[in-house]
Amino acid sequence: MSSVVYRGVGRRIAYERRIVGLTQADLARATGIALGTLRKIERGERGISDAVLDAVAAALDVDPARLLPDRERPDDRVHQAMPTLSAVLAEYEAPEDGPCRDLWVLGEAVASVVAHRLNSQYVRIARTVPGLLAELCRALQDAPPGERAAVARLMVDTCRAADAVAFKYGARDLSARLVDLMRWAAGQTSDPLVEATVAYVGTETYLAARAHTAGLRALERAADAAPRCDRPAAIVARGALHMRAAVIAGRVGNGNAAETHLDEARAAGDRVPEDVYQGTAFGPDSVRVHEVSVAVSLGDGHLGRALTLAREWKPPRCLPAERRSGFYIELGRAQLWSGRPDAAFESLKLARRIAPQHAREHRWVREDAATLRRLKRADAESLSNFAEWCHAGAVS
Predict the structure, then answer these.
(1) DSSP string of 363-390?
(2) What are 275-296's pLDDT values in tens digits?
(3) What is the model's pLDDT at position 301?
(4) Does the structure show a pLDDT above 60 at 3?
(5) What's the pLDDT score for residue 83?
(6) 168-196 pLDDT, tens per residue?
(7) Alpha helices in the chain (DSSP H)
(8) Alpha-carbon Rg of the chain, whole angstroms?
(9) CA–CA separation, 43 and 60 (whole Å)
(10) pLDDT grade for 2, boundaries at 50, 70 and 90
(11) Where are the domains of the chain?
């Protein structure tokens, strides 16, 4: 799918910038856009991409739709891609004929999609993934025996990126089909580490159904089946499964199981440097983020633990944007439940600045923004703008 460039937004950006009292230089610094580029955009001499649109809207604290002609919504591009993606899934075992790039070129394309997922660039994924997944289906069908496993691994990574979009945008049936395709492709690799990755991602089907107990059992089985050796990839595979199992145990309200899995995750995290392994961020910092998530899931007397950790530690910029944004979303919920609505709103705004598309589509952001709006404890106009931006009140 071709890159989208929006036109006719310059005058709206200039208007909103003046409303909040920012100079062009201020806005350029806040968004990382070159000052000359911003001037051309405001004069209407240059269009604006989705990524720049989100950055400008976040800096101005407005809904991106307010900057677009005729109230066009950037996330409409995601929903428009869903039928095409669904059609690709319907024919993955018998794809239509078409071109296939060399394996190394496909690898670079998939690496780019993985980077978009880690940084919550869902619109970019939606444009790219349908065509890329169709090409990988063709490549897998025609791959010589020596390349089949490598192509299948690329398909797993691509399905994972597509699933991130489908799940977060509420297309749960499509998400489940993508997870099924991931499992099928993982079987073509004969690699237990790839299968562990699929088990990690597949938890989403249990989350969507709120079948947390079944999801916890599935994760524990996967952790028991994961390879036990000193290879960093194996350590991470098991550690990530325990990390996610801790969160699911928290959702069940099983504090003992949550602590047991967190201990396993910490032990694994201490043995490897923080990095992205097979598409999963893991290491000491990622485990700390999940400690907050577990505390919030357990609720009540555990919230103080989340607040204490947040006072002592902040996620470093080297963590993927989605991971950092998730930390502040979880922290915002802990602050709200602890009677600190103003602090909660600041955390939600920070999550938005880090990863706008992730925050906008997160269920908890919508729920908490709606609650804050009812409490009317933050600045009314700023909170109303935020609630409109994340569709607060439209939680399904």
Answers:
(1) HHHHHHHHHHHHHT-S-HHHHHHHHHHT
(2) 999 999 999 999 999 999 999 9
(3) 87
(4) no
(5) 93
(6) 998 999 999 999 999 999 999 999 999 99
(7) 10-19, 24-31, 35-42, 50-60, 76-90, 103-118, 122-142, 145-168, 172-189, 192-209, 212-225, 232-252, 255-269, 284-298, 303-312, 321-337, 341-354, 356-360, 363-375, 380-389
(8) 22
(9) 18
(10) very low
(11) 1-73, 75-188, 191-298
CATH architecture of 1-73: Orthogonal Bundle (1.10)
Under the banding of pLDDT at 50, 70 and 90, the label for residue 138 is: very high
Q: Is 122 helix (H, G, I), strand (E, B) or coil?
A: helix
pTM (2 decimals)?
0.84
- Give the integer Cα–Cα distance in Å for 238 and 105: 30
Among candidate residues 241, 322, 257, the one with its CA nearest the CA of residue 294: 257
Please give the structure tokens belonging to residue 170.
Answer: 């509420």
What DSSP line would sit under 323-355, residue for residue?
HHHHHHHHHHHHHHHTT-HHHHHHHHHHHHHH-
Collapsing DSSP to helix, strand or coil, 199 comes out as: helix
H or E stretch at 282: strand 280-282
Cα–Cα distance measured from residue 212 to residue 219, given in angstroms and rounded to the nearest whole number: 10
Over 70: is that where the pLDDT of 312 sits?
Answer: yes
- The rounded distance, in Å, linking the Cα atoms of 82 and 211 is 25
The span from the CA of 183 to the CA of 92, in Å, is: 13
Q: How many residues does the chain have?
A: 396
pLDDT at 256: 96
Beta bridge partners of 282: 275
